[in-house]
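The protein record quoted in full:
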Amino acid sequence: MLTDVEINKSAKLDNIVDVAKKLGIEEDDIELYGKYKAKLSKEVFEKNKDKKDGKLILVTAINPTPLGEGKTTISIGLADGLNRLGKKVCLALREPSLGPVFGIKGGATGGGYAQVAPMDEINLHFTGDIHAMTAANNLIAACIDNHIFQGNELRIDPNHITWKRCMDMNDRALRTITLDYSFKDRTYIRNDGFDITVASEIMAIVCLSKDIKDLEERISNIIFGYDIDGKALKVADLKIQGAVTALLRDALKPNLVQTIENTPAIIHGGPFANIAHGCNSIVATKTALKLADYVVTEAGFGADLGAEKFMDIKCRIAKLKPDAVILVTTLKAMKYNGGVLKENVKEENLEAIKNGFCNLQKHIENINKFGIKPIVALNKYDFDTEAEVNLLHKLCEDIGATLVDTEVFAKGGEGAIELANSLINYLDNNSNNFKFVYDESQTIKEKIEKIAKEIYGADGVSYSEAAEEAIQKIEEIKRDKLPICIAKTQYSLSDDQKKLGRPTGFELNIREVILKNGAGFIVAIAGSIMTMPGLPKVPAAEGIHMAEDGETIVGLF
Protein backbone atom coordinates (compact mmCIF):
# COMPACT_ATOMS: atom_id res chain seq x y z
CA MET A 1 0.00 0.00 0.00
CA LEU A 2 1.17 3.54 -0.71
CA THR A 3 2.34 5.73 2.17
CA ASP A 4 0.08 8.48 3.50
CA VAL A 5 2.14 11.14 1.74
CA GLU A 6 2.02 9.25 -1.56
CA ILE A 7 -1.77 8.77 -1.30
CA ASN A 8 -2.23 12.44 -0.46
CA LYS A 9 -0.02 13.62 -3.30
CA SER A 10 -1.76 11.37 -5.83
CA ALA A 11 -5.23 12.66 -4.95
CA LYS A 12 -6.93 14.92 -7.48
CA LEU A 13 -7.87 17.99 -5.45
CA ASP A 14 -10.43 20.59 -6.39
CA ASN A 15 -9.43 24.23 -6.48
CA ILE A 16 -10.33 25.66 -3.07
CA VAL A 17 -12.66 28.16 -4.77
CA ASP A 18 -14.75 25.21 -5.99
CA VAL A 19 -14.64 23.57 -2.55
CA ALA A 20 -16.02 26.79 -1.06
CA LYS A 21 -18.85 26.84 -3.61
CA LYS A 22 -19.99 23.40 -2.38
CA LEU A 23 -20.81 25.14 0.90
CA GLY A 24 -22.41 28.14 -0.80
CA ILE A 25 -19.41 30.42 -0.19
CA GLU A 26 -18.55 32.97 -2.86
CA GLU A 27 -14.97 33.57 -3.97
CA ASP A 28 -15.03 37.12 -2.58
CA ASP A 29 -15.61 35.71 0.92
CA ILE A 30 -12.44 33.61 1.05
CA GLU A 31 -8.80 34.62 1.37
CA LEU A 32 -6.61 32.36 -0.76
CA TYR A 33 -3.46 30.68 0.52
CA GLY A 34 -2.53 29.06 -2.79
CA LYS A 35 -4.80 26.71 -4.80
CA TYR A 36 -5.85 24.38 -1.99
CA LYS A 37 -6.10 26.45 1.20
CA ALA A 38 -8.15 29.47 2.16
CA LYS A 39 -9.35 31.43 5.14
CA LEU A 40 -13.01 32.24 5.58
CA SER A 41 -13.84 35.91 6.08
CA LYS A 42 -16.09 37.01 8.93
CA GLU A 43 -18.78 37.77 6.33
CA VAL A 44 -19.29 34.04 5.73
CA PHE A 45 -20.97 33.56 9.10
CA GLU A 46 -22.81 36.87 8.95
CA LYS A 47 -24.36 36.03 5.57
CA ASN A 48 -25.55 32.64 6.85
CA LYS A 49 -26.35 33.35 10.51
CA ASP A 50 -30.11 33.08 10.03
CA LYS A 51 -29.92 29.58 8.53
CA LYS A 52 -30.95 26.57 10.58
CA ASP A 53 -28.01 24.70 12.13
CA GLY A 54 -27.05 21.34 10.69
CA LYS A 55 -26.58 18.22 12.80
CA LEU A 56 -23.49 18.24 15.03
CA ILE A 57 -21.74 14.86 15.23
CA LEU A 58 -18.91 14.42 17.74
CA VAL A 59 -16.29 11.74 17.10
CA THR A 60 -14.40 10.59 20.19
CA ALA A 61 -12.59 7.43 21.26
CA ILE A 62 -11.50 5.08 23.99
CA ASN A 63 -8.22 5.72 25.80
CA PRO A 64 -5.59 5.62 23.06
CA THR A 65 -2.74 3.15 22.95
CA PRO A 66 0.78 4.17 21.90
CA LEU A 67 -0.15 2.86 18.44
CA GLY A 68 -3.12 5.23 17.95
CA GLU A 69 -6.75 4.31 17.28
CA GLY A 70 -7.59 6.39 14.20
CA LYS A 71 -10.13 8.86 15.59
CA THR A 72 -9.29 11.56 13.05
CA THR A 73 -9.21 8.97 10.27
CA ILE A 74 -12.73 7.81 11.21
CA SER A 75 -13.91 11.44 11.35
CA ILE A 76 -12.65 12.06 7.84
CA GLY A 77 -13.93 8.73 6.51
CA LEU A 78 -17.37 9.34 8.03
CA ALA A 79 -17.61 12.76 6.37
CA ASP A 80 -16.60 11.19 3.05
CA GLY A 81 -19.16 8.44 3.58
CA LEU A 82 -21.93 10.98 4.17
CA ASN A 83 -20.75 12.87 1.10
CA ARG A 84 -20.98 9.68 -0.98
CA LEU A 85 -24.58 9.31 0.19
CA GLY A 86 -25.34 12.74 -1.26
CA LYS A 87 -25.45 14.61 2.06
CA LYS A 88 -24.23 18.18 2.42
CA VAL A 89 -21.45 17.67 4.93
CA CYS A 90 -18.51 19.59 6.37
CA LEU A 91 -15.66 18.44 8.57
CA ALA A 92 -14.60 20.62 11.50
CA LEU A 93 -11.21 19.48 12.80
CA ARG A 94 -8.26 20.78 14.81
CA GLU A 95 -4.96 22.01 13.40
CA PRO A 96 -1.89 19.80 13.90
CA SER A 97 0.87 20.89 16.27
CA LEU A 98 4.52 20.58 15.29
CA GLY A 99 5.24 18.88 18.64
CA PRO A 100 3.64 15.54 17.74
CA VAL A 101 4.55 15.88 14.03
CA PHE A 102 8.23 15.66 14.92
CA GLY A 103 7.71 13.64 18.11
CA ILE A 104 5.94 10.30 18.44
CA LYS A 105 2.30 10.72 17.41
CA GLY A 106 2.80 12.20 13.97
CA GLY A 107 0.45 14.63 12.25
CA ALA A 108 -3.31 15.02 12.47
CA THR A 109 -4.54 14.77 8.91
CA GLY A 110 -5.89 11.21 8.99
CA GLY A 111 -4.33 8.22 7.26
CA GLY A 112 -4.56 5.87 4.32
CA TYR A 113 -7.49 6.77 2.08
CA ALA A 114 -9.18 8.94 4.71
CA GLN A 115 -7.11 12.12 4.76
CA VAL A 116 -7.40 15.87 4.50
CA ALA A 117 -5.16 17.64 2.02
CA PRO A 118 -2.62 19.02 1.38
CA MET A 119 -1.34 16.95 4.31
CA ASP A 120 2.25 18.20 4.26
CA GLU A 121 1.23 21.86 4.39
CA ILE A 122 -1.49 21.30 7.02
CA ASN A 123 0.89 19.31 9.24
CA LEU A 124 3.65 21.89 9.02
CA HIS A 125 3.07 25.66 8.88
CA PHE A 126 -0.47 25.54 7.40
CA THR A 127 -1.70 29.18 7.36
CA GLY A 128 0.49 30.31 10.26
CA ASP A 129 -2.21 30.30 12.97
CA ILE A 130 -0.15 28.55 15.63
CA HIS A 131 2.89 30.71 14.86
CA ALA A 132 0.72 33.81 15.40
CA MET A 133 -0.49 32.43 18.73
CA THR A 134 3.10 31.76 19.79
CA ALA A 135 4.05 35.35 18.95
CA ALA A 136 1.01 36.76 20.78
CA ASN A 137 1.74 34.69 23.88
CA ASN A 138 5.39 35.71 23.94
CA LEU A 139 4.59 39.39 23.40
CA ILE A 140 2.72 39.29 26.70
CA ALA A 141 5.64 37.52 28.40
CA ALA A 142 8.14 40.04 27.03
CA CYS A 143 6.02 42.99 28.18
CA ILE A 144 5.68 41.56 31.70
CA ASP A 145 9.44 41.30 32.17
CA ASN A 146 10.06 44.62 30.46
CA HIS A 147 7.55 46.32 32.76
CA ILE A 148 9.39 45.01 35.82
CA PHE A 149 12.75 46.01 34.38
CA GLN A 150 11.55 49.51 33.50
CA GLY A 151 10.53 50.36 37.06
CA ASN A 152 7.58 48.08 37.79
CA GLU A 153 4.82 50.69 38.10
CA LEU A 154 2.26 47.90 38.60
CA ARG A 155 4.33 46.47 41.49
CA ILE A 156 4.29 43.01 39.89
CA ASP A 157 5.47 40.31 42.29
CA PRO A 158 8.16 38.38 40.33
CA ASN A 159 7.48 35.33 42.50
CA HIS A 160 3.81 35.24 41.51
CA ILE A 161 3.88 35.55 37.72
CA THR A 162 1.68 32.81 36.25
CA TRP A 163 2.22 33.58 32.54
CA LYS A 164 4.73 31.34 30.75
CA ARG A 165 6.39 31.64 27.38
CA CYS A 166 5.54 29.04 24.74
CA MET A 167 6.66 27.42 21.52
CA ASP A 168 5.05 24.86 19.22
CA MET A 169 7.61 22.12 19.73
CA ASN A 170 8.31 19.34 22.22
CA ASP A 171 11.33 20.53 24.22
CA ARG A 172 11.66 19.29 27.81
CA ALA A 173 14.75 21.47 28.33
CA LEU A 174 12.49 24.54 28.35
CA ARG A 175 10.15 23.35 31.11
CA THR A 176 12.18 25.37 33.59
CA ILE A 177 14.41 28.32 32.69
CA THR A 178 16.12 31.14 34.56
CA LEU A 179 15.74 34.71 33.33
CA ASP A 180 18.88 36.62 34.19
CA TYR A 181 19.79 39.97 32.65
CA SER A 182 21.35 43.23 33.76
CA PHE A 183 21.44 46.82 32.53
CA LYS A 184 23.62 49.40 34.22
CA ASP A 185 22.71 49.24 37.91
CA ARG A 186 19.72 46.89 37.55
CA THR A 187 19.86 43.10 37.82
CA TYR A 188 16.79 40.95 37.29
CA ILE A 189 16.64 37.22 37.96
CA ARG A 190 13.59 34.94 38.19
CA ASN A 191 12.60 31.37 37.34
CA ASP A 192 10.20 30.77 34.47
CA GLY A 193 9.38 28.12 31.87
CA PHE A 194 7.76 27.30 28.56
CA ASP A 195 4.51 25.53 27.66
CA ILE A 196 3.82 24.05 24.25
CA THR A 197 1.70 26.55 22.30
CA VAL A 198 -1.29 24.21 22.08
CA ALA A 199 -1.50 24.24 25.90
CA SER A 200 -1.40 28.03 26.08
CA GLU A 201 -4.26 30.25 27.16
CA ILE A 202 -3.92 32.13 23.87
CA MET A 203 -4.79 28.93 21.98
CA ALA A 204 -7.81 28.39 24.24
CA ILE A 205 -8.93 32.00 23.82
CA VAL A 206 -8.78 31.87 20.03
CA CYS A 207 -10.77 28.63 20.07
CA LEU A 208 -13.41 29.97 22.48
CA SER A 209 -13.86 33.51 21.07
CA LYS A 210 -16.95 34.29 19.00
CA ASP A 211 -15.50 37.31 17.15
CA ILE A 212 -12.65 39.84 17.18
CA LYS A 213 -14.31 41.97 19.87
CA ASP A 214 -14.76 38.96 22.13
CA LEU A 215 -11.16 37.97 21.41
CA GLU A 216 -9.81 41.34 22.59
CA GLU A 217 -12.00 41.29 25.69
CA ARG A 218 -10.76 37.82 26.63
CA ILE A 219 -7.14 38.88 26.08
CA SER A 220 -7.74 41.95 28.28
CA ASN A 221 -8.99 39.64 31.05
CA ILE A 222 -5.99 37.32 31.07
CA ILE A 223 -4.54 37.24 34.59
CA PHE A 224 -0.77 37.04 34.17
CA GLY A 225 0.19 37.30 37.84
CA TYR A 226 -0.28 39.20 41.09
CA ASP A 227 1.13 42.35 42.65
CA ILE A 228 2.96 42.44 45.98
CA ASP A 229 -0.37 42.92 47.79
CA GLY A 230 -1.89 39.83 46.18
CA LYS A 231 -4.10 41.72 43.72
CA ALA A 232 -4.66 39.97 40.37
CA LEU A 233 -3.06 41.72 37.38
CA LYS A 234 -4.49 41.53 33.87
CA VAL A 235 -3.13 42.08 30.37
CA ALA A 236 -5.30 45.20 30.24
CA ASP A 237 -3.09 46.63 33.00
CA LEU A 238 -0.13 46.34 30.60
CA LYS A 239 -2.15 48.19 27.90
CA ILE A 240 -1.15 45.69 25.20
CA GLN A 241 -4.46 43.92 24.50
CA GLY A 242 -4.79 45.76 21.19
CA ALA A 243 -1.35 44.69 20.01
CA VAL A 244 -1.93 41.07 21.02
CA THR A 245 -5.29 41.08 19.22
CA ALA A 246 -3.67 42.52 16.10
CA LEU A 247 -1.26 39.57 15.99
CA LEU A 248 -4.24 37.20 16.13
CA ARG A 249 -6.50 38.95 13.59
CA ASP A 250 -5.97 36.41 10.82
CA ALA A 251 -5.56 33.46 13.19
CA LEU A 252 -9.18 33.91 14.30
CA LYS A 253 -10.42 33.20 10.77
CA PRO A 254 -11.18 29.49 10.08
CA ASN A 255 -9.20 27.60 7.43
CA LEU A 256 -10.90 25.79 4.56
CA VAL A 257 -9.34 22.73 2.93
CA GLN A 258 -10.74 19.39 1.67
CA THR A 259 -10.45 15.64 2.04
CA ILE A 260 -8.80 13.61 -0.69
CA GLU A 261 -12.39 12.78 -1.77
CA ASN A 262 -13.05 16.55 -2.04
CA THR A 263 -15.34 16.85 0.98
CA PRO A 264 -15.07 20.38 2.48
CA ALA A 265 -13.12 20.56 5.73
CA ILE A 266 -12.74 23.51 8.10
CA ILE A 267 -9.59 23.07 10.20
CA HIS A 268 -9.02 25.63 12.93
CA GLY A 269 -7.47 25.68 16.40
CA GLY A 270 -5.45 22.90 17.94
CA PRO A 271 -5.52 22.57 21.76
CA PHE A 272 -4.43 19.16 23.06
CA ALA A 273 -7.01 17.32 25.17
CA ASN A 274 -4.54 15.89 27.69
CA ILE A 275 -3.21 19.32 28.70
CA ALA A 276 -5.83 21.72 27.27
CA HIS A 277 -9.51 21.59 26.26
CA GLY A 278 -9.02 19.55 23.10
CA CYS A 279 -11.56 21.04 20.66
CA ASN A 280 -11.42 23.06 17.47
CA SER A 281 -12.66 26.65 17.48
CA ILE A 282 -16.21 27.72 18.24
CA VAL A 283 -16.06 30.02 15.20
CA ALA A 284 -15.22 27.06 12.95
CA THR A 285 -17.91 24.77 14.37
CA LYS A 286 -20.66 27.39 14.34
CA THR A 287 -19.76 28.45 10.80
CA ALA A 288 -19.80 24.82 9.60
CA LEU A 289 -23.22 24.30 11.21
CA LYS A 290 -24.64 27.14 9.11
CA LEU A 291 -23.06 25.86 5.89
CA ALA A 292 -23.83 22.12 6.01
CA ASP A 293 -26.59 19.70 7.03
CA TYR A 294 -24.08 17.43 8.78
CA VAL A 295 -20.98 18.62 10.65
CA VAL A 296 -18.48 15.99 11.75
CA THR A 297 -16.12 17.22 14.44
CA GLU A 298 -13.75 15.52 16.86
CA ALA A 299 -12.41 15.97 20.38
CA GLY A 300 -8.87 15.01 21.34
CA PHE A 301 -7.73 11.68 22.79
CA GLY A 302 -10.15 9.51 24.79
CA ALA A 303 -13.71 10.39 25.71
CA ASP A 304 -12.63 10.90 29.35
CA LEU A 305 -10.63 13.92 28.17
CA GLY A 306 -11.75 15.28 24.79
CA ALA A 307 -15.43 14.41 24.89
CA GLU A 308 -15.90 15.52 28.50
CA LYS A 309 -14.26 18.88 27.73
CA PHE A 310 -16.20 19.22 24.48
CA MET A 311 -19.43 18.82 26.43
CA ASP A 312 -18.62 20.60 29.70
CA ILE A 313 -16.46 23.44 28.33
CA LYS A 314 -17.04 24.06 24.63
CA CYS A 315 -20.76 23.26 24.49
CA ARG A 316 -21.37 25.24 27.69
CA ILE A 317 -19.56 28.35 26.44
CA ALA A 318 -20.84 28.14 22.84
CA LYS A 319 -24.38 27.05 23.78
CA LEU A 320 -24.09 23.99 21.54
CA LYS A 321 -25.15 20.38 21.94
CA PRO A 322 -24.09 17.35 19.92
CA ASP A 323 -26.84 15.50 18.06
CA ALA A 324 -24.86 12.25 18.01
CA VAL A 325 -21.59 10.79 19.29
CA ILE A 326 -19.36 8.28 17.48
CA LEU A 327 -17.06 6.37 19.86
CA VAL A 328 -14.04 4.90 18.06
CA THR A 329 -12.39 1.69 19.19
CA THR A 330 -9.98 -0.92 17.85
CA LEU A 331 -9.41 -4.58 18.64
CA LYS A 332 -5.73 -3.92 19.25
CA ALA A 333 -6.72 -1.39 21.92
CA MET A 334 -8.98 -3.96 23.55
CA LYS A 335 -6.05 -6.39 23.63
CA TYR A 336 -3.64 -3.74 24.91
CA ASN A 337 -6.04 -2.78 27.70
CA GLY A 338 -6.41 -6.50 28.37
CA GLY A 339 -2.71 -6.85 29.17
CA VAL A 340 -1.13 -7.63 25.78
CA LEU A 341 2.19 -5.94 24.96
CA LYS A 342 1.98 -3.53 22.03
CA GLU A 343 4.32 -5.68 19.92
CA ASN A 344 1.88 -8.60 20.23
CA VAL A 345 -1.45 -6.87 19.53
CA LYS A 346 -1.60 -8.23 15.96
CA GLU A 347 -1.94 -11.79 17.26
CA GLU A 348 -5.43 -13.19 17.85
CA ASN A 349 -6.30 -13.11 21.55
CA LEU A 350 -9.97 -13.45 22.45
CA GLU A 351 -9.36 -13.54 26.18
CA ALA A 352 -7.48 -10.23 26.10
CA ILE A 353 -10.37 -8.62 24.20
CA LYS A 354 -12.77 -9.79 26.90
CA ASN A 355 -10.46 -8.39 29.59
CA GLY A 356 -9.90 -5.07 27.81
CA PHE A 357 -13.55 -4.51 26.89
CA CYS A 358 -14.08 -2.86 30.29
CA ASN A 359 -12.35 0.28 28.98
CA LEU A 360 -14.78 0.63 26.07
CA GLN A 361 -17.71 -0.15 28.36
CA LYS A 362 -16.72 2.67 30.73
CA HIS A 363 -16.55 5.17 27.87
CA ILE A 364 -19.98 4.08 26.63
CA GLU A 365 -21.34 4.61 30.16
CA ASN A 366 -19.70 8.04 30.29
CA ILE A 367 -21.29 9.24 27.04
CA ASN A 368 -24.63 8.00 28.34
CA LYS A 369 -24.17 10.31 31.36
CA PHE A 370 -24.38 13.27 28.98
CA GLY A 371 -27.78 12.03 27.82
CA ILE A 372 -26.53 10.57 24.53
CA LYS A 373 -26.31 6.94 23.40
CA PRO A 374 -23.09 6.61 21.36
CA ILE A 375 -22.59 4.62 18.16
CA VAL A 376 -19.41 2.56 18.55
CA ALA A 377 -17.23 2.52 15.42
CA LEU A 378 -14.76 -0.35 15.08
CA ASN A 379 -11.72 0.84 13.14
CA LYS A 380 -10.77 -2.46 11.50
CA TYR A 381 -7.22 -3.52 10.65
CA ASP A 382 -6.18 -6.20 8.19
CA PHE A 383 -4.83 -8.35 11.05
CA ASP A 384 -8.17 -8.41 12.90
CA THR A 385 -9.66 -11.91 12.78
CA GLU A 386 -13.30 -12.78 12.17
CA ALA A 387 -13.52 -14.42 15.60
CA GLU A 388 -12.25 -11.23 17.29
CA VAL A 389 -14.67 -8.98 15.37
CA ASN A 390 -17.61 -11.28 16.18
CA LEU A 391 -16.63 -11.33 19.85
CA LEU A 392 -16.60 -7.53 20.11
CA HIS A 393 -20.00 -7.36 18.43
CA LYS A 394 -21.35 -9.83 20.99
CA LEU A 395 -19.84 -7.90 23.93
CA CYS A 396 -21.40 -4.64 22.70
CA GLU A 397 -24.73 -6.33 22.00
CA ASP A 398 -24.80 -7.70 25.56
CA ILE A 399 -24.70 -4.17 27.03
CA GLY A 400 -27.11 -2.70 24.48
CA ALA A 401 -24.52 -0.80 22.46
CA THR A 402 -24.49 -0.40 18.67
CA LEU A 403 -21.21 -1.43 17.02
CA VAL A 404 -20.49 -0.68 13.35
CA ASP A 405 -17.47 -1.93 11.39
CA THR A 406 -15.46 0.61 9.39
CA GLU A 407 -12.55 0.27 6.96
CA VAL A 408 -11.83 3.88 6.09
CA PHE A 409 -8.02 3.58 6.13
CA ALA A 410 -8.11 1.09 3.27
CA LYS A 411 -11.32 2.18 1.52
CA GLY A 412 -11.91 5.85 2.34
CA GLY A 413 -15.53 6.99 2.33
CA GLU A 414 -16.68 3.64 0.95
CA GLY A 415 -15.44 2.02 4.16
CA ALA A 416 -17.73 4.27 6.22
CA ILE A 417 -21.00 3.81 4.34
CA GLU A 418 -22.43 1.46 6.97
CA LEU A 419 -21.43 3.91 9.73
CA ALA A 420 -22.92 6.85 7.81
CA ASN A 421 -26.21 5.00 7.31
CA SER A 422 -26.30 3.99 10.96
CA LEU A 423 -25.72 7.62 11.95
CA ILE A 424 -28.48 8.92 9.66
CA ASN A 425 -30.87 6.34 11.06
CA TYR A 426 -29.96 7.38 14.60
CA LEU A 427 -30.46 11.08 13.84
CA ASP A 428 -33.80 10.41 12.16
CA ASN A 429 -35.15 8.34 15.05
CA ASN A 430 -33.57 9.68 18.22
CA SER A 431 -33.44 12.89 20.21
CA ASN A 432 -31.01 13.15 23.09
CA ASN A 433 -31.47 14.72 26.48
CA PHE A 434 -28.11 16.46 26.59
CA LYS A 435 -26.84 17.52 30.01
CA PHE A 436 -23.58 18.52 31.66
CA VAL A 437 -21.75 16.39 34.22
CA TYR A 438 -21.48 19.23 36.72
CA ASP A 439 -22.99 22.62 37.50
CA GLU A 440 -20.45 25.41 37.06
CA SER A 441 -21.88 27.17 40.13
CA GLN A 442 -20.46 24.38 42.30
CA THR A 443 -17.16 24.87 44.12
CA ILE A 444 -13.89 24.11 42.33
CA LYS A 445 -13.37 20.95 44.38
CA GLU A 446 -16.93 19.77 43.84
CA LYS A 447 -16.51 20.11 40.08
CA ILE A 448 -13.14 18.35 40.02
CA GLU A 449 -14.47 15.53 42.19
CA LYS A 450 -17.56 15.14 40.00
CA ILE A 451 -15.37 14.59 36.93
CA ALA A 452 -12.97 12.34 38.84
CA LYS A 453 -15.67 10.10 40.27
CA GLU A 454 -18.24 10.11 37.46
CA ILE A 455 -15.96 10.08 34.40
CA TYR A 456 -12.66 8.58 35.58
CA GLY A 457 -14.07 6.22 38.22
CA ALA A 458 -11.87 7.56 41.03
CA ASP A 459 -12.72 7.07 44.70
CA GLY A 460 -11.73 10.64 45.49
CA VAL A 461 -9.29 13.49 44.88
CA SER A 462 -6.15 14.61 46.71
CA TYR A 463 -4.62 18.08 46.42
CA SER A 464 -1.05 19.30 46.81
CA GLU A 465 -0.37 22.27 49.06
CA ALA A 466 0.22 24.43 45.98
CA ALA A 467 -3.11 23.35 44.50
CA GLU A 468 -4.93 24.14 47.76
CA GLU A 469 -3.37 27.62 47.83
CA ALA A 470 -4.28 28.26 44.18
CA ILE A 471 -7.89 27.23 44.76
CA GLN A 472 -8.13 29.55 47.75
CA LYS A 473 -6.69 32.40 45.67
CA ILE A 474 -9.19 31.82 42.84
CA GLU A 475 -12.03 31.79 45.35
CA GLU A 476 -10.82 35.01 46.94
CA ILE A 477 -11.00 36.87 43.62
CA LYS A 478 -14.40 35.26 42.94
CA ARG A 479 -13.42 33.47 39.72
CA ASP A 480 -14.29 29.97 40.94
CA LYS A 481 -17.62 29.63 39.08
CA LEU A 482 -16.00 28.50 35.83
CA PRO A 483 -15.76 25.16 33.99
CA ILE A 484 -12.91 22.79 34.88
CA CYS A 485 -10.25 21.57 32.43
CA ILE A 486 -8.34 18.61 33.89
CA ALA A 487 -4.88 17.93 32.44
CA LYS A 488 -3.93 14.27 32.81
CA THR A 489 -2.48 11.34 30.88
CA GLN A 490 -4.49 10.21 27.88
CA TYR A 491 -3.46 6.57 28.23
CA SER A 492 -5.53 5.77 31.32
CA LEU A 493 -8.83 6.74 32.90
CA SER A 494 -6.71 7.49 35.99
CA ASP A 495 -3.76 9.89 36.29
CA ASP A 496 -1.32 6.95 36.07
CA GLN A 497 -0.69 5.86 32.49
CA LYS A 498 0.19 2.34 33.65
CA LYS A 499 -3.32 1.71 34.99
CA LEU A 500 -5.02 0.30 31.89
CA GLY A 501 -8.52 -1.06 31.38
CA ARG A 502 -10.97 0.27 33.95
CA PRO A 503 -8.96 1.09 37.07
CA THR A 504 -10.68 1.25 40.45
CA GLY A 505 -9.65 2.12 43.99
CA PHE A 506 -7.53 5.14 43.04
CA GLU A 507 -7.37 8.83 43.87
CA LEU A 508 -6.92 11.59 41.33
CA ASN A 509 -3.88 13.60 42.43
CA ILE A 510 -4.14 17.33 41.66
CA ARG A 511 -0.72 18.94 41.95
CA GLU A 512 -1.44 22.34 40.40
CA VAL A 513 -4.46 24.55 39.69
CA ILE A 514 -4.27 27.45 37.22
CA LEU A 515 -6.90 30.08 36.44
CA LYS A 516 -7.27 30.77 32.71
CA ASN A 517 -9.33 33.91 33.22
CA GLY A 518 -9.34 35.04 29.60
CA ALA A 519 -10.30 31.62 28.30
CA GLY A 520 -12.90 31.27 31.00
CA PHE A 521 -11.95 28.00 32.67
CA ILE A 522 -9.78 26.58 35.45
CA VAL A 523 -7.04 24.04 34.71
CA ALA A 524 -6.37 21.29 37.24
CA ILE A 525 -3.11 19.44 36.52
CA ALA A 526 -3.20 15.80 37.63
CA GLY A 527 -0.38 13.34 38.21
CA SER A 528 2.84 13.75 36.25
CA ILE A 529 1.38 15.27 33.06
CA MET A 530 3.57 18.03 31.57
CA THR A 531 2.38 21.13 29.71
CA MET A 532 5.66 21.04 27.76
CA PRO A 533 6.10 17.51 26.35
CA GLY A 534 9.46 15.97 25.53
CA LEU A 535 10.64 14.13 22.44
CA PRO A 536 10.89 10.31 22.41
CA LYS A 537 14.18 8.43 22.14
CA VAL A 538 13.69 8.17 18.38
CA PRO A 539 11.75 11.27 17.25
CA ALA A 540 9.64 11.11 14.09
CA ALA A 541 11.87 13.95 12.88
CA GLU A 542 14.60 11.39 12.17
CA GLY A 543 12.50 9.86 9.39
CA ILE A 544 11.52 13.09 7.64
CA HIS A 545 13.50 14.39 4.68
CA MET A 546 13.19 16.14 1.34
CA ALA A 547 12.96 14.08 -1.85
CA GLU A 548 15.32 14.66 -4.76
CA ASP A 549 12.78 16.90 -6.51
CA GLY A 550 13.32 19.48 -3.75
CA GLU A 551 9.56 19.82 -3.21
CA THR A 552 8.20 16.54 -1.82
CA ILE A 553 8.52 15.91 1.93
CA VAL A 554 9.05 12.23 2.72
CA GLY A 555 8.35 10.58 6.07
CA LEU A 556 5.43 12.64 7.35
CA PHE A 557 2.62 10.55 8.83
User: Anything to note?
Assistant: The chain has three domains: 4-128+251-429, 130-247, 444-526.
